[in-house]
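Progress note, project year one: complex with zinc ion.
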Amino acid sequence: MDWRAETQALREQALPEIATDDHLLALDERRVRWLGRNGLITKLLRSIVSAPDAERREFGAAANALKAEVEAALEHQIAKVKAAAPDSRLTEQDDLTLPGRPVRLGRMHPISRTIREISRIFLSMGFEAVEGPEIEWDYYNFEALNIPKGHPARDKFNTLWASNPLGDDPSRPMLFRTHTSPMQIRIMEQRKPPIRVIVPGRCYRFEATDATHESVFFQYEGLAIDEKLSMADLKGVLYSFARQLFGGERKVRFRPDYFPFTEPSAEIAFDCFVCDGSGQKDGGRCPTCWGSGWIEAAGCGMVHPDALRRVGYDPDKYQGFAFGGGVDRLAGLLTGTPDIRLFHQNDLRYLESV
Amino acid sequence: MPTIRVPLSWLREYVEAHGSAEEIGRGLHMSGTEVDRIERPGGGWDHVWVGRIAALEKHPNADKLQLVTVEYGEGRTKTVVTGAPNIRAGDVVPYAEVGARLRDAGTGAPGREAHGDGWLTLEPKKVRGIMSEGMVCSERELGLGDDHDGILILDQGLAVGQPLADALGDPVLVLELQPNRPDCMGVVGVAREVAAVQRVALREPKVAKLRYQLDRALLDVRIEDPEACPRFGAAYLENVTIGPSPKWMQQRLTAAGMRPIHNAVDITNYVMLELGQPLHAYDADRLRGHALVARRARSGESLRTLDGVERILSPDLLVIADDERSLGIAGILGGQDSEIRPTTTKIALECASFEPRGIDRTAAKLGLSQQSAASARFRLALSPELVPLAVARAAQLLVEHADARIVGAVDVYPSPRPRPNVRLRFSDILRVLGVEIPREESLDALSRLGFQYAESGDTLVVTPPAIRTDIGIAEDIVEEVARIVGYDRIPVLIPDGQLPLQERHPLEALREQVRDHLVGFGLQETVSYSLIDPAWLGRLSADGSPIAPAPIRVQNPTSISQSVARPTLRASLLDTAARNLRHRDGVAIFEISPVYLPRAGDLPEERWTIAVLVAGRAKEQTWLTQPRDWDRWDVKGLLAAMARSINAGTFSGPSGPAAGMHPGSSSTRLHDGRPALMIGQLDPRVAARWGVPTETFIGEVDLASLLAVVQPHVAKLPPKYPAALREVAFVVDEAVTYGAVRDDVTGAAKDLLESLTLLDVYRGPQVGVGKKSFALRLVLRSRTGTLTDADVEKVVSRIEGRVLHKLGGTIRG
Ligand SMILES: [Zn+2]
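Model obtained:
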C-alpha cells in the first residue's frame, strides 16, 4: 500500500476511535494500540527507513505529523473524560432528615414582650418610657388625683396598704400603687411641658384572682401635656396604638367614662379581632370579648385642671391628656393566653410556647 | 361601683323611649351610663313562643291525655300531647318547641331529658303511640312561679308567634353607675338621661307640694349637727292602714332587687328606687317626746340595730334620735324599736341629706363592708333638693296605698346651698374636644339635660339642675355636651406641637439589653409575684437567718402567700425552679425585677436586680451530643458573657462570703459600698429545703451597679503587626488562686498582652502533692511594630519572673 494511503487510512481509523472512548482505561489501551512499542503508528514510523529515498523525508514528516495528531487527540480525550468524571469532593450523600445539633433557646416573658411592644409603639409617636415607684404614698396614688379619703371612687381601688418595718407614719400612709396614674403627678412635678411619657409598671389590688383578675398586675400609663392638646389628639394616639398593636383594620370605640383625675373622661375599646366584633364564635359566645364584640383597652381623658394646678401648671396655658390600660389583658390577647394567672405561674411548658 | 336595676316598664313610665331594651341600653352606654347587662326573667326561653290552641282532641289511646294543635305564627303548627285539663280551643298559651329549656316540674311529662340541674331540654317523643312535638307549659315549667295545676293561660291580646320573652319578660337594665352620678341612682334620673339621648320628653312623677306646717307637739324636727346633716325633712301622717302594697309595686320592687314587706316600708323603698333619695318611716306613736333629731351619739349610748346587733355608739357617729334615745345610725342602719308594726296608725316620714364622708367613715368604723341600698346612695353626693321631693312623693303614695291622711310637713334646711353657676366660653368646647360643636347644638344638648344657661357673646353661664351635684367646672360642661352629641363627633388627629424631651433612662436601656442577651444565651425569662410568703425568707439560709433586710409588709394581704414585698428575687427563682423540676430535668431561668428595701421615713428603695438560676440537666443526650449538667462555671460564664455584651468593667469593691450560699463556692462583691454581684452554688442544705438539686447555681447582679461600670464603646482598629503566641505553665501551691496568677501575668505583660487563655489546670504526680499547674496561652502583640523573638523572650521572662518571685511558682518544663 502506498504510504500516503496507509497514513491516511490510519488517521481515519485512529481519530474517530479515540474520540468515542469515554473511559481512561480504554484510552490507555488505545495508546498502546496506536503508539505502543508494537503500535500501528510506531510500525508506520519504523517503515520509513524502507521507503524510497526520494519519498522518505516526506513520508517521515507525514508519519510524525500523524503521531503528533494522535497524541494530541489522546490528550484531548483524556482531559475530556477526566472533566466528565464526578468530583470526589462532591460525591458524599448525607441523610438530611437527621436532626441538627441542638441550640438552647431562651424566651422573653410575654409580659416583658408586651411592655416592650407597647413602649415601642408610643415611642414611635414621640413618647418617652419612664418608670416610677410601685410602693407609693397615698398622696400620689389618690389625693393628688382628686381622690381624697372617703371619696366613693376609692371603692374602685381595693387598696393593699404597706407597712414599713422601720416604722410607719400614720399621717403619711404608704400603699402598693393601685394604678400607674400616680406617675402623672410625679412627672409633672419634675418637668415642664411639653411632656409626652409612657409609664409601664406593676400595680396591686386587693382582688380575688380569676382568669381575668390578678392581685399583682401590670399597667401602662400615658401622659401628654402641651399648649393645645385636645381630646381629638388623645383619640388619634389611642387609635394609632390599637391599630399598630392589633391591625390597621381595627375599629375603635370611644365612649364617656369617669375618672376623678380626668375631665372629660373616656373609655377606648376596639372591635374584637377574634369574632370581628360580632360577639359570636363557633355558635356560642366569643370567649375573647365575652360576647360584647368590644375589647376595652384603656381609660383616658383630659388631665383635670385641679391636677394641673396642684403641680403648679397654669391650666389656662397648658392642657393635655392621660390614658391607662392593662398590660396583662393585652399580653393575653397577643399570645392567645386565656387565663392571665399563667403569667405569674412561670410554668416553663407554658412560657416556652408563647 | 354602685349597681342599680331598672325594669324597662318602670323606665318607660317616665320617658317615651323608643326602641328595644338593647337599643335604649346602647344609647345609655354610649353616653356614659354603663350598662353591665340586660336581664330578662325568661333568660332561658329560647324556642318558647306565644301560641294559640287551634284544635283539641282526645288522645286515641289514653283517656286523660289530649292532642293539642298549636299554631305559633304564620304556617307554623305543631301537635303536642298534654294531660292538662284547663285549656280550650282558642286559648293563648306558652308553646315550647323541641330544643327549649324548661324547668323540670317533676311530673314525668312527655319528651323530657333531665339535665340534673332542675332544667331539661325538650326532645320529640312518642306518648302512647302519638308523636309530641314540644309542649304547652305551666307557670312552674317556665320558671315564672309555682303554679303547676294547669297550663298558663295568657292574655288574648298577645300577638301569636312572638317569642314569649318579648311578650312576658320585662327586661331589666342592670347599670354600673359612676360614683359622681348619684342623680342616676333612681329610675327618674336614668329616664332623664334616656330623654336627653333620644330627644324625647321626660315625664317626671307628678308630686303635689306639701303644706309645710306642722304642730311641734305632733312632731318636732331638729338638726343639732348641720354640717353632718344639712337638710332634714319630715311629714306626719295619720289614719294609716298597714297591709300589703299593691301588686304592681311589689313586682317593681322585686324586679329592682328588693323584697316587698308591707305598704309603708315598700313605699319608702319605692321612692328611693324612683328618685334615688332614701327615706325612713317611723311609728310616730313610739317617738318619745314626738321628736326626730339629727345629732351626734352620746358617749356610751347603745342601740339594737335592725340586723339584731346591740351596738355601743360613740360621739363621732351621727344618729337619728327622739328626745330620749337613738333610733338609728344616720344613713346606715335603722333601729328595731321604732319599726312600723301591723298596728301602726301614725307615721313620721323622715328624709335627710347627709355629708357623704361621714357616712363612709361611719360604715368603716362599724365594720359594715356590705352596703345597704340606702347607704350606697348616701355615700354619694345626693342633692339636698331631693329631700322635700321624696317626702312629698312618699306621703302621696301613703295616701294612695295606705289610706293615710297627711297632717303636715317640715323642712329644716338652715343654710341652703346655692346652685353653682359654671362660666365657660364657647371656644372651650373646641379647645377641649378638638372639634367645633355648633352653638345651637351645644345649647340644645345642655337644655335636654335640664341645664339652664345665659349666653353673652362667647361667654356662657350654665346652671346645672339641682340633682346634678357633679358639675363644677367648664370641662364638666364640655363633657356633658360631648356625651350627648356623641364622642364619635371628636375627630381622630395626631398631636403636633413642640418636640418633647426624649431621653431613654439609661437604667431602663441597660435592663432591656441585658434581657436580650440573657435570652440569647438560652435562658428563659420568668416574671413572678412581687408579693411573697414571709416564710420563704426564712428558708433562704441553712439556719433560717435572713439574707435580706426585713421586708415591707402588706397590712391587709389577700393571703399569707402574698403578704410581704420581696427583698430578694432568690426565693421566687427557687420556687419556680422547684415547681418546674417536678416535670423536667433541668432549668435555666432569669428574672429582672425590683426588690424592695425599706428605708426609714421614706418609700422603700426599689432596687432593680438581675437574678439567674441554673440547675439540673444542661444538655440532653442526642446523637451528636453527650448529656451534661449545669455547673458553677456555667453561671460564671453566663454572667461574664453578659458583662462583656454590655461592655461592663469590673466591680471595684471587696468580695466576701455570700449568705445562704455554699461557703466554699460562692462570693459577693461590692461596688461603691453596695452589693453588686453574688454568684455561686446554693447552700446544699437550702437546696434541700426548696426541693431543688444539690447543685443549684445562682447569680444576682444589681442593675444600678452594673450601669456604673459600663464603659463607652471604643472602636478598636484591626492590628497592623503580627502576633506572637506562647504557651507557658506555672506550678504553684494549691492555695494560690488563678486570679493571682492572672493578675501577675497581666501586670507583667503590660500592654503587650492581647489575650490570655487558661488551657488547663493540672494536679497530679507530675507536679507533686499540694501543687497545681496552670497552662496558659498568651497572645502578644505590639501596637507599634513587629515583635522580634528577643522582644517576646523579654516579655515572657518578665512574666515568668513575676510569677516565680511573687507567687513562688515554678515553670513547668
Ligand atoms: Zn369577640
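The longest strand of chain A covers residues 216-226.
The mean pLDDT of chain A is 91.
No further modelling is planned for this target in the current period.
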